[in-house]
Amino acid sequence: MKLLGRLNNAPYRPRRVLGFSRLSALEFLRIRNPNLSEDQILSKIKEIGQDSEEIFAEHQRQIVCEQNLAAVLKKLDISFRITKRIREATKCTKWADLVIPIGGDGTFLLASKLITDSRKPVFGINPNASRESNIFALPSKYGTDIESVFEKLRAGEYTLLMRSRIRTVMKGVGLYRRPFHIHEKSRTRGERRIDKNDKMSATKVLKPSLHSKIADALQPRERTLPWFALNEVFVGEFLAARPITMVVQLENEETFQIRSSGICVCTGSGSQSWYRSMNVQSADTIRAIVEIATGKKLSPEETNELLYKYNTSLMYPVEDLSMTYKIREMYNSTRCTKHKCCPDRVRCTKLTVISHGFDAGLVIDGCISLPFNDGTLATFDIRPEYSLKNIVLT
Length: 394
Prior knowledge:
Family: Belongs to the NAD kinase family.
InterPro entries: ATP-NAD_kinase_N, ATP-NAD_kinase_PpnK-typ_C, NAD/diacylglycerol_kinase_sf, NADK
EC number: 2.7.1.23
Strand content: 15-25%
Keywords: Kinase, NAD, NADP, Transferase
Helix content: 25-40%
Protein name: NAD(+) kinase
């Protein structure tokens, strides 16, 4: 990955710091079970076969990391706020001149949504880096030595990595409805059933729908989403077994109508994540293709070497000002029209997608989701001013 030059002549002394911490599994369970004591929660965790001791230890590491950060900032006379609430963090982001996500890659992705320009720096601290993926956070040694991080910043011993991000512009109706976390989404729309014993009458059920339609009609039909995608934007039906039909236009070229399991539009950062797993091939597949094409049977060593080269080629620099889209499980009947074929994986700087979905969603970095149903259009592009300023230490 390419880094901007080491800034030995530019000491950085933040004045206001926002620490955005994730909820540990134990804290989440406390909220979900307010009537249970901590011991009762841990007992229930053990009953279902999970490691209650590790969950408690993970919680302790998270709390200790938050306390250490607070102690260091207080010692350095830096104003700070540490919160686990997304609404409070959103309000504090403009106030802060440095954002520090405390947690794994998911926490970093969520924190990146709070930053809407390329000027505010961010770095992540992962208290559990030894047992989780650690693409975005500082090396694990800094998780227990936070003071050394600020010493390096004051000495100018850091680098900046401008991670490219994707902007999304949508056109359609209902664009200003409250977004939701992907895990809040019901699997089907028919989970609420109305019968004779239901206190809610059919009239009361229909009223919110009518209000929603009126509100949608009064809203603008175009919206630039305030959240940039650091990893990827995914479009598809919420019910995984249901395919979606979409019209895809690459740059300003000809459009294609396709039917698939969805489309993933990723950045260089995202090329190391879900996008890579979508495209990765098994050793058996590589061996079979080579044998069909050349008649040669590869040895295990040759297969692994070829597989490594292929998997490595899927990734590209995180500051690259281009996107790559990947169409998942495209139906062959819609792949080609008028003797022209729609490729299932292409690098580009602009992409337009029109949905013909039924209960579809547009999901940003696996966390923020908006409805993306029939007739809604989304345009994705990538520019330098959308980038995220990531502080990197070695």
